[in-house]
Amino acid sequence: MYRDVSSCNTYNYGDSLYWDARYIQEGGSFDWYQRYAALRPFIRNSIPLSSTVLMVGCGNAVMSEDMVEDGYEDIMNIDISSVAIDMMRRKYEYIPQLKYMQMDVRDMSFFPDESFDGVIDKGTLDSLMCGTDAPISAAQMLAEVFRLLKPGGTYILITYGDPTVRMPHISRRVFNWKITLYNIPRPGFHKSESSTSARKSYLEPIPLAENGLLPADFVLEDPDSHYIYICKKINDTNIDNIPAYQLTADVL
Ligand SMILES: C[S@@+](CC[C@H](N)C(=O)[O-])C[C@H]1O[C@@H](n2cnc3c(N)ncnc32)[C@H](O)[C@@H]1O
Fold first, then answer.
1. Methyltransferase type domain spans which residues (predicted)?
2. Which residues pair with 122 in a beta bridge?
């Protein structure tokens, strides 16, 4: 089922009030899924250091700080939670490369078209997928991300969602981008000695099957692993050769 609520718990991850309350309660910082060090090869490979970067749903993660330490020069961070944005703006007022704005990722009309070279999403589409009207929210968010990317720019989606639940949303024909998929284990995961996976490195892309799904012989070593979708906005007006995977009634 494409709605994919399996990883949503009883909290409403699509609700700004939930996030405000959580950030008031927790303070500090927390990175969902992965730290920058593990994602660095993928990000550095597709988003050059001189890029204008948009971090959607930044929360209180240190990811953007780590990216600036690595040499990124211009990162705009947005989040629906004003609590998170106020905290982060105060915390990083001494780092001019980091900017923070409270904003709903489904309506980023504040920014003109083609404002960014790269957009990074770690857990934000996943949060919308747990909210009410999830497919509509996802479509609104992805349309905004696509609009804001310069031609040739890249959207990097880091998610627990495998291609059965994410491809129908990201590969719609209106989005003219080339998608490359990776899978990395959760931090601290150790491969079992009996693993039958033939993969030599997590840096190898996963060849997608004709239908846009994982190939039949793909062995998922870690069931709690994360997928990285690298979506490069194509500069080409001919979109006929870009596959689109069907939205089914489950998605809508
Ligand atoms: C799972 S957390 C991920 C936070 C951070 N990216 C990380 O990796 O640690 C999801 C974030 O998305 C934000 N969020 C949820 N819905 C949003 C929306 N409609 N617009 C912008 N941000 C949203 C939440 O406030 C939260 O900070």
1. 54-156
2. 158
User: Would you give the DSSP letter of residue 91?
Assistant: H
Q: Which domains does the chain have, with CATH numbers?
A: 32-187+200-233 (3.40.50.150)
What's the pLDDT tens digit per position in 152-205? 999 999 999 999 999 999 999 899 899 999 999 999 888 776 665 666 688 999
How far is Cα 160 from Cα 43, in angstroms, rounded to an integer?
17
- Among 80, 128, 141, residue to substitute to test ligand 1 (most atoms within 8 Å of Cβ): 80
Q: Are 120 and 55 in contact (CB under 8 A)?
A: yes
Half-sphere exposure of 96 (CA within 13 A, CB side): 0
CA distance 244 to 223: 26
- Give the CA-trace dihedral at 60, 63, 68, 74, to 10 degrees: -70
Reported ipTM exceeds the 0.95 cut: yes
**Tens digit of each residue's pLDDT (9 = 90 or more) over 212-251:** 889 988 888 888 999 999 999 997 654 555 555 544 434 3
Asked whether the beta carbons of 110 and 86 are under 8 A apart, the reply is no
Ligand 1 midpoint to CA 70 (Å): 23
Question: CA 216, CA 212: separation in Å to the nearest integer?
Answer: 11
Protein residues with CB under 6 Å of any ligand 1 atom: 14, 19, 31-32, 57-59, 61, 63, 79-81, 84, 104-106, 122-124, 127-128
CA dihedral 169, 172, 176, 179 (to 10 degrees): 50
